Amino acid sequence: MDWLIWIGAAISLAGVAGLVWCIVLAMQARKAGLEEEAMHARLQRVVTLNMAALGISALGLMCVVVGILLG
Q1: From the first residue on, what is the mean pLDDT of each consecutive set of 10 residues in the chain (71 residues)?
Q2: How many CB atoms lie within 10 A of CB 68?
Q3: C-alpha count within 13 angstroms, C-beta hemisphere, residue 38
Q4: Quick one: which of 63, 69, 65, 71 has its CA closest to 10?
Q5: Are 4 and 59 in contact (CB under 8 A)?
Q6: Global model pTM greater than 0.70
Q7: Greatest alpha-carbon span in the chain
């Protein structure tokens, strides 16, 4: 089950990269100096991407744990 561990690690790494991307997007939104409505809309999009990245990372970690338990 080594392959499941490596695939899970890659998926988890992709999720972490998505989380870093969300941080970059939030910092760009902060520096843009937008009005409250525009800032809220942009940050709402970042929150959605953040939740998706967190879910992907969690799925990757589940694959790693299953691979370890079955291996």
Answers
A1: 95 97 95 92 96 97 96 89
A2: 13
A3: 8
A4: 63
A5: no
A6: yes
A7: 53
From the list 14, 2, 21, 6, the residue with the least C-alpha distance to 58 is 14
3-state helix, strand, coil in the chain (%, to 5): 95, 0, 5
pLDDT at 33: 87
Q: In whole angstroms, how large is the CA radius of gyration of the chain? A: 16
DSSP structural state of residue 33: T
Q: Where are the domains of the chain?
A: 2-70
Q: What is the pLDDT of residue 65?
A: 97
pLDDT score for 5: 96
